[in-house]
Amino acid sequence: MSDEELLIWNQKGLIPGPGESEEAFRQRIEGVEGDGLPREHWELAREQLKELFDFEPGCLKAFYSNEKLTPWQGAACWIEGGHSVLQLREGFRKGRYLGIYRREEVLAHEAVHAARAAFQETENEEFFAFATARERWRRVLGPIVRRPWEVWLLGVWGLGGIWDGFTWIGAGVVSLGFCRLIRQHWRLRRAAETLLKRVGEPKRARAILFRMTDEEVRKLARGEWVEGDETLRWRLIRKAYMMNGFKESLWQKK
Asked: What is the DSSP string of 129-183?
């Protein structure tokens, strides 16, 4: 795969995952379909994602349907065989759902998951996705839930009137969630600061961070330099985001 091809796919939101070979990446991008939504429905989301993480989903299939969505889900990103499909509730056809949730914000959120479809990482996934939220409180508090089943644990809190034990269980889950939330926000901020010292531009640092693994983020947060390998993902990072004249040796652990 030429550098030009790799950069084009990157801009469309098809990013090689950790350890993904060129052959596996080619198989994953074969037969990708364009979205099923009117282009204007994507416009604001694409602009936001380009600004935040340097990609514009250009071949991501999306459709409106309420089928299989849980009561609290406004949308979902289904990943099968490396291919991603976005599903939005019918209510989003008019731009908003329940008068609160904006279509462009939900599309941007789910497109983040689609772009990182080949990343089997959980620590930072929701932090990247909620970075697309307009309200600051949602960007900060939104990632408190990392996995779908944690929603059910939070729901236990509301059953405190039935049994006091539910209150203590719910309070414990929330407390642990807040501790994890604070720690991970700190890690991402420290990792971004470490990157910024080397690449010199906030947008460039943010784009690189978005394409990193949880372990790489942890190392950067500790002030350690990440050792770039020879995988397709790191080839992309170097070609797309390293500054002219930037020495790869600076990325070697010191």
From this structure: HHTT-SSHHHHHHGGG--STHHHHHHHHGGGTTT-HHHHHHHHHHHHHHHHHHHH
* Amino acid code (one letter) for 205: A
Question: 136: how many CB neighbours lie within 10 A of its CB?
Answer: 8
Contact 85, 64 (CB under 8 A): no
Q: What is the pLDDT of residues 53-66, one digit of tens each?
A: 999 987 788 899 99
Segments making up each domain of the chain, as ranges:
31-120, 121-223
Question: What's the CA dihedral at 135, 138, 141, 146 to 10 degrees?
Answer: -150
Buried b (16+ CB within 10 A) or exposed e, 98-130: eeebbbbbbbbbbbbbbbbbbbebebbbbbbbb
Looking at residues 12-23, what average pLDDT do you find? 93
Those residues with Cβ within 8 angstroms of residue 176's Cβ, 6 or more apart along the chain or in another chain: none
- Strands (DSSP E) contained in the chain are 61-64, 75-80, 83-88, 96-97, 101-102
Query: Rounded to whole angstroms, how far apart are CA atoms 61 and 152?
Result: 29
Q: Do residues 176 and 170 make contact, with C-beta atoms less than 8 angstroms apart?
A: no
